[in-house]
Every structure is written in structure tokens, then in C-alpha cells.
Amino acid sequence: MHLYGTQKVNENGHLTIGGVDTIELAKEYGTPLFVYDLQLIRERARGFIETFHQLGVKAEVAYASKAFSCIAIYQLAKEENLSLDVVSGGELYTAIQAGFPSERIHFHGNNKSSFELELAFDSNVGCIVVDNFYEIELLKEIAQAKQQSMRILLRVTPGVEAHTHDFITTGQADSKFGFDLNNGQADEAFLKVKDDEYLNVLGLHCHIGSQIFETDGFSLAAEKLMNKISAWKEAYGFHCTVLNLGGGFGIRYTEEDTPLEPQVYVKEMIETVQSFAGKLNLSMPEIWIEPGRSLVGDAGTSLYTVGSHKTVPNIREYIAVDGGMSDNIRPALYEAKYEAVVANKANEDKSNTYTVAGKLCESGDKLIVDALLQPTEPGDILAVFCTGAYGYSMASNYNRIPRPAVVFVEEGQHQLAINRESYENIIQNDLALSLKRG
């Protein structure tokens, strides 16, 4: 059994995280429950930051908070000297409410509204990552009206296809994100902003995909961006100060996954940028990266209570849990795979094969197909590993199921980070019918 971060099995055979018994957490907070290992998140953050320091390269490590957003995680990011990648007005508002330094916030998105952009200006965010021509015109109007400067990066699609699932590959030419680097759109965008009175172009941004296990794609993307920067320097005297190479660093979900250590990705990026800076006679830019999943993914564990069992003779045996696609849509959306353990029997042999079904009224609501687990019975606590990224953040109230609570654990302590929703929460925005017939 592969354990992550501070996970251990105690003398009672129970899974513990951060020195806290998961069975006690389930009793106190109920299930479904997301449990985050803060020590593991801190170690990952420091691993990225310290690698840049050791190699003497100026950098910003921005937590890509779409992976998991809430006030408490933003406060943790602040403690660890991370910057922040937000992709909506809601994430930006949450960050400001969390007291996150606005100068370390980078605002992304392919269809930012005027309201969201004005919020970014009013919040004095550190940078806006510009995604399209429509946004350029909005930015110019807002900056002119406010007579306020804003630092920007131009997001480009470098034509690099990462080795990943089609739905989470974003650096290829056919993408809703960014200006194409190869068909002239990036050049056109640059010309529209390079001499603007209020918009300060720092450099370029790209993101080639997610759950990536090799460095070749990052190196190739960096090469393409450095060549474009060189061309703009020669033609227009442009001085690039920031190169943002995005995120997408993979984690281990199952034994099929073979991620690299964070330091390996960082070193390869730095070496590529330094090499081309030398070849092209360019100043070394700051390197910004945006880890999200690799900071919080395997630091999160979902706890469920096992309920009904169903045996389909000669086909499979189902166990059902009290959550499902309402708190983890990834198996249904991406065919994502997970591993699990019966948390109150973690020291027993895994001898039974079950398909773990959720309680949602969808035949595709299966969290794990053919999971090898300890023998289970109703009332057992099932722990599903590596649900810290895109679990809670993509959760819904489908079937009017309340979203789970979220708990942080560290050094034997635990605290609620997000309250469990109630039925009252679910109907709080509903209005009674008032139209009169006839």
C-alpha cells in the first residue's frame, strides 16, 4: 500500500494523517470529508521555491488555485511565500478576503468580464495574463478610464502537445486559450500593447497541459518562447523580464503514474532558458511557474462511509459510499483512476475486488472500478487517496447533495477549513413560485 506524506497506519490498524486518526475525524466531522495534509503541501511548496534559490534564479511560484480554493488554503500559500494564480472574480475575491498580498496575485482566464477586470484593477493585482484580443480592448478602456497602470503577460499557445489526456492539454494550436505563437496572432497582440500608455508588457506565458511526467514539453515550449522574445527584441527593442512556463507537473494517483520530483522540472526549465538566453544574447528573465495539482493533489484524502453492497454474479461486486461524482467528478469526466484503503482496516490484507459506486443517480457514478480492498461491510470508512486537486473545487449540488466539509491536519492537530453544507444552504437562494395563472 502506497502512503502519501504523513499518512501512517497506527496500532489500531487505522489510517492516520498528520498524526490524526482518520476514523476519529470521520466521527467528529462526518463523511464525506476532505482531509488535507498541510505538512506535505508545505514541503512541496518549499521544494519548488528552494530549487530556484539554490540555482540563483529570480522566480515566482504561484499556486494555481483552481485546484482547490478557499480562504484557509490562500492563507497557507501566503505563509509559504507563494504567489497566487486566480482564474475568476470569485477566486480573486476569496484571495483578497483571505488577506493575500494583491501584488503577488496573477489573474488568468479566457473570458474575463469587465466587472472582473475592474475588480483586478481596484485590488491592485500584480499581473493580468491576457488571453485574447477582446480582453486587450477591455483592458485599454479600463486602464484609460482609471488612469491606472497594469502589468500584463501575453498568454500564447506554443504548439506543444503534452503527453496527457486530450481534455487537459492546453498548449496545442487548437485551444480556447491564448494567442497562437505560429500563425501571427501573438505578434499582432504584442503590437497592440507594446506602446500602450498604461499596459506594461512583462513577457510571455504558456501552459502546455496537466498531469505531465516528462520535461521535454516544457523545454520545447521554453525554446519557442525564447525565440519569439529574441525576435521582438531585434525588431522592437523589447526587453522581456518574465517568462511564465505554467504548471501541469504530474502526481502519483496509481502505480501506473511515474511523476518526477518538483526539483527536476524546475532545473530542466532553468537550464533551457539559460541556454537560449546565452545563445540569443538575451537577459535572463524571471521564471514564473504555476503548480496546482502538484502542491495539493496527493495532500488530499477523501473519507466516505460504506453503505450498500450489490453482487452481480460472475461480473462484479459493488460497494456504495455516501458521496460520489458530486464531490469527485474526475472519474466520470476524465476516466481518472484512484487507489483507496478501508481506513479502519488499513493493516489487513487487500483480498477483495470491488467497484466503488457513488450515491448519485447516474450509472456513470463510479469512483473506482475494480478496486482491490480489504473486505468491507456497511459502516466502514473508505479513504480515497490523492483527491486534493479538482475534487472539492469541482464539487456540485447535483441531486441536491450538500458539499462535504474540509479539514486541515498538521502535527496532531485538526481544524475545519470549510463547513459542511446543510440542506438549508442548498435552498437558500431558491424562491417560491409567485406567478399567477389566468
Automatic annotation (TrEMBL):
Gene3D superfamilies: Alanine racemase, Lyase, Ornithine Decarboxylase, Chain A, domain 1
Binding positions (pyridoxal 5'-phosphate): G248, E290, P291, G292, R293, Y390
Pathway: Amino-acid biosynthesis; L-lysine biosynthesis via DAP pathway; L-lysine from DL-2,6-diaminopimelate: step 1/1
Swiss-Prot/TrEMBL cofactor(s): pyridoxal 5'-phosphate
EC annotation from Swiss-Prot or TrEMBL: 4.1.1.20
Residue numbers of N6-(pyridoxal phosphate)lysine PTMs: K66
Organism superkingdom: Bacteria
Record Pfam families: Orn_Arg_deC_N, Orn_DAP_Arg_deC
Keywords: Amino-acid biosynthesis, Decarboxylase, Lyase, Lysine biosynthesis, Pyridoxal phosphate
Positions of the Orn/DAP/Arg decarboxylase 2 N-terminal domain: 41-296
Catalytic activity: meso-2,6-diaminopimelate + H(+) = L-lysine + CO2
MF terms in GO: diaminopimelate decarboxylase activity; pyridoxal phosphate binding
SUPFAM superfamilies from the UniProt entry: Alanine racemase C-terminal domain-like, PLP-binding barrel
PANTHER family, sorted: DIAMINOPIMELATE DECARBOXYLASE (PTHR43727), GROUP IV DECARBOXYLASE (PTHR43727:SF2)
UniProt record similarity statement: Belongs to the Orn/Lys/Arg decarboxylase class-II family. LysA subfamily.
Assembly, per entry: Homodimer.
Function field: Specifically catalyzes the decarboxylation of meso-diaminopimelate (meso-DAP) to L-lysine.
The name this protein goes by in its record: Diaminopimelate decarboxylase
Species of provenance: Ureibacillus sinduriensis BLB-1 = JCM 15800
